[in-house]
């Protein structure tokens, strides 16, 4: 298989894909695939509950939180958050750290007043703004931030302190990459296609006291309480994605859970940034304290070599290294399923390219 550095949909663990392949025609001797099963049947209900429990175990989710398996990706959460948490007369605080935070801000502004309480703009979005720079409202319905900007490659390595105001986080591209204290949050949401499973699925973890606060015009399908009351099965859930996510959670447990992932992910990012910093040939502009462990944007100092770099990379089985169209350059996304050996191979390739063209 290729080394896949795609930002999303991203690489999945080979072991998981092999299991899916083995179970595709005949899941556990039942003579059918999970894709063909009723979501109301006892088999699927048990499978879904097990996936939820495994995720709870991995993240140590406290009992007063609901774990929801929803649809529409993280982008739908950009609307679902204000629809459920912000009344007409309220405002919400948002921290702007890059393209994804901006999208969340623009969507929320359709439903109520948004206060951009902090912004990385002064740093060209090469760093997250420190909390001492934020101007939080006194009466915000919630504070929203993006823990990892997938395109910009900036990540919070700290959790904001916002007192009693619910803290809402888009954790799409760093969930499950290392341990996190769920009890600090009101809502955590994450599109699945990086560290969880297939795209389309989104996991939302919400503190129970935040349920039932939706606006009167909130669509039923976007109402967190309806989803929670129906165990995420108000309508037909994305059953195959849920099953596959469950297999990824089991795989994560086998890797030593999130402590295990943290160890490997730390090594991976140290290796890649370490090499980029050691040479004049490549460059990463992100401030040391805001560097993402999952998405590593980098540039070749001589941009004329970009095309050749990408061509050679692809020939050598290193896929999807092209940076986001809005940023240019390169980006290596090194999510959980991209092992240390993949990063070692990438660094060796980058060194060789530098030797040939530097
Ligand atoms: N938030 C972040 C941080 C992302 O990286 C993405 C995209 O992958 C999204 C939100 C949007 O996710 P989706 O495409 O699942 O709607």
TrEMBL record:
Keywords: Amino-acid biosynthesis, Aminotransferase, Cytoplasm, Pyridoxal phosphate, Pyridoxine biosynthesis, Serine biosynthesis, Transferase. The keyword Thylakoid does not apply. It is an enzyme of class 2 (transferase). It catalyses: O-phospho-L-serine + 2-oxoglutarate = 3-phosphooxypyruvate + L-glutamate; 4-(phosphooxy)-L-threonine + 2-oxoglutarate = (R)-3-hydroxy-2-oxo-4-phosphooxybutanoate + L-glutamate. Pathway: Cofactor biosynthesis; pyridoxine 5'-phosphate biosynthesis; pyridoxine 5'-phosphate from D-erythrose 4-phosphate: step 3/5; Amino-acid biosynthesis; L-serine biosynthesis; L-serine from 3-phospho-D-glycerate: step 2/3. Its EC number is 2.6.1.52. Residues 3-346 form the Aminotransferase class V domain. Catalyzes the reversible conversion of 3-phosphohydroxypyruvate to phosphoserine and of 3-hydroxy-2-oxo-4-phosphonooxybutanoate to phosphohydroxythreonine. PANTHER family: PHOSPHOSERINE AMINOTRANSFERASE. This is Phosphoserine aminotransferase. It comes from Entomomonas moraniae.
